[in-house]
Specification:
CATH architecture of the largest domain: 3-Layer(aba) Sandwich
Domain HTH lysR-type: 1-58
Shape: globular
Largest sheet: 9 strands, mixed
InterPro entries: LysR_HTH_N, LysR_subst-bd, WH-like_DNA-bd_sf, WH_DNA-bd_sf
Order of helices and strands: HHHEEHEHEHEEEHEHEHEEHH
Number of helices: 11
Number of domains: 3
Radius of gyration: 23 Å
GO molecular function, one term: transcription cis-regulatory region binding
Oligomer: single chain
Protein name: LysR family transcriptional regulator
CATH class of the largest domain: Alpha Beta
CATH topology of the largest domain: D-Maltodextrin-Binding Protein, domain 2
Pfam families: HTH_1, LysR_substrate
């Protein structure tokens, strides 16, 4: 099976339109249709329902989407690994939950760039469940998440403990008086703890995946959110944010996971030692 058949299938599965897919892929409509037909013949199934005006994925087509994405990613990683190896550089594929990037990983990536100048970085964002699967499938080398899996052959290392505090754009505000409460996703442990602590006293107006988005939002629109202390320190000093008195502070541990038998173990360990938590 040629990889271009899968990339063409994925494009059509997203657009559900041969003409749009052909434009995106810079191919003729006939070429796109031919590739889809060839893929269906190789698999022995119909991937699209063509009885309606608009294409629709069949049950078999839906199943193929997941595997096709993984195969395309694996092929891209293989090409990059082999190609870059000839240039005497190393590759590091990093995956993380969305909310962790702004908390600790931006600075860490800069440290890798400054200290490991032979490393070529690739970054990806996934859900917590997807990160575990990407590690096991060897599609990424290191994953960062809040709740690490306890799986044999996966190494888990805590890389940071992040203090969280409730801050508001209004001084001397009680949590029950806040109109724009923004709930940031720090993982199930903190989310459920927050609900137990405040219950009906806090009316959640918005849910956001990234602390940085929540910070920018409340600075513009007003309101409050639990944010990492280091992220709001300067805003508190300038009087733009205020710690909400009488509220519970939380902390969140962040973990790195990787395969114990990874062929990049030396590189992974070098990269992780750039976290100050592991050096202390």
């Amino acid at each position: 099976m040629k990889i271009e058949l899968l990339t063409t299938f994925l494009e059509v599965s997203q657009t559900l339109h041969v003409r749009v897919a052909s434009e995106n892929l810079f191919l003729t409509q006939a070429a796109v249709s031919s590739r889809i037909k060839q893929l269906e013949e190789e698999l022995g199934v119909l991937l699209f329902d063509r009885t309606q005006k608009r294409l629709k994925l069949t049950a078999e087509g839906h199943k193929l989407v997941k595997y096709a994405n993984e195969m395309v990613m694996m092929w891209q990683k293989l090409k990059q690994e082999v190609g870059v190896a000839q240039a005497d550089t190393q590759q590091l594929f990093v995956g993380s939950m969305m909310s962790i990037w702004d908390i600790i990983l931006q600075d860490w990536l800069q440290k890798i760039h400054r200290n490991l100048d032979d490393v070529h970085l690739y970054t990806h964002t996934y859900s917590q469940l997807e990160l575990r699967r990407q590690i096991v499938s060897r599609l990424i080398d290191i994953a960062f998440l809040f709740e690490p899996p306890y799986i044999e052959d996966i190494v888990t290392e805590k890389v940071a403990t992040v203090p969280l505090q409730l801050v508001s754009t209004e001084p001397s505000t009680h949590i029950s008086q806040i109109k724009n409460m923004v709930m940031v996703d720090y993982g199930e442990a903190v989310n459920s703890q927050f609900i137990r602590e405040y219950g009906d006293n806090a009316i959640i107006r918005h849910n956001m995946s990234q602390p940085r988005i929540a910070l920018n939002f409340i600075l513009e629109a007003g309101g409050c959110a639990y944010l990492p202390k280091q992220m709001c320190f300067d805003h508190i000093r300038k009087g733009k944010l205020f710690h909400v008195a009488g509220t519970q502070d939380y902390s969140r541990d962040i973990y790195a996971i990787y395969l114990a038998k990874s062929h990049k173990s030396v590189l992974i360990n070098e990269a992780l030692t750039l976290f100050s938590y592991l050096r202390s």
